């Protein structure tokens, strides 16, 4: 898949995300849209994964540590064929396979229950160690939020990953600068991320998290680091793709009225080259 097709795929997934927001009346749209391009590249370009065999031992693993951004993963899993797209309309409903945080017991393709911030990376470290003990060549990928790094358990996991030289572990920090209460730097500032991770012994790459070429190249560079884990600090925009939500903390959890949802869908469709598309013709 070339870079333009990756962009189109991410746009389709953003539209699917808005479909879920329409169904539930709300959703964590800001973080889902800031990490959408990364999740798209992982599933459609980088990872060994098969919707027909989601538990295959040789698969790569992906954990969305910031589990409240699950709208992004659900949309990509549907686009990849892990479940039929009409299920998107059940998001957040009683008994759905698409709850407000990922549940490995409900949906194929989910590797761990996440959303209690600070847990995902530690789980991923254990997975990476287990793969090494089994002499496997699978890789483990994680997306964390920048606000999530205030959780102390992350730093224990970061230290352990470096100590055991887990080169099969690659972490993205979705660095959109915002969390539910406002700017991360005002609430609990853990920048500079590069210097902090390097001090623990990690390979650090910094990119524009909405540039498909940079995401792909960073993942290629991560594979070259054979003696340490890699973190990719991805500068992103919260609510990316919806002009009136971009860069606003209010997009963290969004309950739109019908007019706002119409405008959001239109914005994404225009970006995707679907200017003639109107309404909710999913």
From TrEMBL:
Task: Enumerate the InterPro entries for this protein.
Answer: THDP-binding, Transketolase_N
Pfam families (alphabetical): Transketolase_N
> Keyword set for this entry?
Thiamine pyrophosphate
Enumerate the spans annotated as Transketolase N-terminal domain: 8-274
Cofactor (UniProt):
thiamine diphosphate
Superkingdom in the source lineage: Bacteria
- Give the family this protein belongs to, as stated in its UniProt record: Belongs to the transketolase family.
Query: Could you tell me what this protein is called?
Result: Transketolase
Species whose genome carries this gene = Bariatricus massiliensis
* Lineage of the organism: Bacteria, Bacillati, Bacillota, Clostridia, Lachnospirales
